[in-house]
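Let's do one together. I've listed all components of the complex below, 756 residues spread over two lines.
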Amino acid sequence: MLGSFLTIFLIMEIGGKCLVCHSEIRRDFKECIHAKEGIGCASCHGGDEKTLNEKRAHGSKFIGVPKRKEIPKFCSRCHSDPSLMKPYGLPIDQYALYLTSGHGRRFSRGDTTVAVCTDCHPAHQILKKNDPRSTVNKRNIVSTCEKCHADSELMEKYGIDPSIPEKYRKGVHGKALIEDGNLRSPDCSNCHGSHGAAPSGYGDINKVCGLCHPGEREFFLKGNHKVVLDRAGLPECISCHNSHLIVSMTPQEGISTMCRKCHEEGTSPIKFAMKLLTLFQAADDAIKEAENAIEEAKRLDVDVEDFNYRLEKSKLYLTEAIPVLHTFELELVETELRKARSEAEDIVAEVHQHKVQRRGRIFVLIAIWFYILLTISITYRFRRKRKEGEARQD
Amino acid sequence: VRKLIDWFEERINLTEIVSFLGSFGIFYLPLDTAKKLREALRTYNERLLPAYTRFPQILGLITFFLFILSGITGVLLLFYYQPSTKEAFESVKYITRAVNFGFYVRELHRWSGHFLIAFLFFRILRFSFQGIFRKPREFLWIVAVLMLFLSFFEGITGNLLPLSQRAYWSTVRALEAVGSIPIVGPLFFFLLGGKEITESSFTRFFALHSVVFPSAFIFLFYLHFNIIRKTGLTVRKDRGGFIRFFPDYFLESIIILLLIFGFLLTLGIFFPAKDIEVAKPYFTPPGIHPPWYLLPLYGVCELTSSFLGGFLFLIFSFSLILVPFFVKGENLLILRIFIFALLLTLFFLGLAGYFAEVPFAK
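Okay, and this is what the predicted structure of the assembly comes out as:
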């Protein structure tokens, strides 16, 4: 008896008296941000949440379950109201953005199979973005989008490739985000937007990629490929790097595989690419050699702090050469790579100097012992002669 | 050259200068200062020395040479060393890497210091084995023991000066060990101005190491040779005949000096100091122990308590100084057995100190 009262009391605490009957959503709603901020059932669904009488509860201004085609408008009643959203520091443009998105445009044409608010934000369990369980948390966004975008039946209707999420997961961004947990790696929404989700136009791809890769973009725009690709109507960055299945590779691997996508073997661009390849390979080899030299220096008990610092510097120059590579101008790339190489080669030379110095110590030692033994032998001869002289005198 | 010496001789008493310098260890017997230098040396050379002053009875000579060597190299290091906590490590690095022959000078200084302590210890062993503390050589023994203790402090203060991680933490352990000795510890801390290694106490380490203790050392050497001159050398028939100061003794000394030099240099080149990291007072590296000559003390402190260990060592050192007044030394065999037992104890205590569990090491 007491137990059941207590249960009712506890339920009433959160969602008024609605949850006594609608107990199936009780657990979800308890965690919902709306419940925590004191926005109860009646705020969305209307009716009276203070009574256990079903008729009265579902009485005046009762809305019930909103229809799918009403949902965006339904949410925007509050979420587009500046006076309501201001205290929470939330934006009010989601509905406007949604209407511009691929989803929203089809929705306004009357297509209700496209995503609406509740497909991404589960109605009764809306969690904050930084909650790790939230469907819109950075780590979970891919699986949220995947729910529809990996559905081949659904995607067939719109002519969208259902393998895109899978491709993304295999790509460098997906691996970094999902496997390594690198939260700086972009999820779907970073490139496509969230509420205003739309594929970017061909001419805009360099801008989208340039959000995170500004150096590459800057040098790409300076180079000759931009003009050629635009004239041929080919997408910019993704012509070489793919769009979702972006493969992580070293500059050497990139040069030796990507250029052949468009350029034929034996033509001057391929010869140029081979030149670049040699340059990168040389810088890379120099850095590896410097790493070995530092290991050797450690064995010689030499202080390697300065070497490590300079090795990092050299690696940085090599990394800086990669954006510059997008100009496809030999001179610029070579300047960066020469810096990397000279820094690394300096380290090798200095370690070699240390080695020579160590070897020199042994020579000094031999010379000194030679001198000592010489002196000893001379003194002994001197003494013997003196003794002989004394003996003769006696 | 003879004319030049004569020219000087008319104006300065060269004999007296040479005699004064010689009293720091070159001549066993005093020179006749009334005579001219050449004549004085000749008459000195006519007096024969007992043959046993030659090899292998040269521990005293070796310690003296080691002291001279560490003195010369120490002065050379002074030209480049910066005695402040900020610059010390960098300046030592500069000495060993950039300065011409800096590496050799530094290694010679380091190894001659270690061997000075070792040979002072060997000498006390030899003294006790042969009973060289009996009348009239009581003071010889006391001076020898004082020199050993002084060399410990010289070592402790010098150990810190490179201010590397190893130097810093072994000095911390050394201060723990020395601080446990009742009267000596507080006195040492008084000289340093505190129990911790700070900016100001670091300068004191330097001052003690480079001026105060060496001066005391020179004084003790002077005292030592003074005593030898006074007591003279015993002539023993079973130990061969006599030798001349020149050329026998003099040339042999030069050979020994050269051999020591070569030996120390060899050690220095094959086992250089490993001062790679600068001292980090908030990071204790594993496997830290005090300098080797403090290991027995550290061991007894670790095995019992720091108070008891220190107290035992205080009694031990005082009794070591006062040995000539208590031990008659009529039966040398018992004494030798006793010394052997003592050596073993010290060795095992040293082992205990070396392998002592160091808190936070793991």
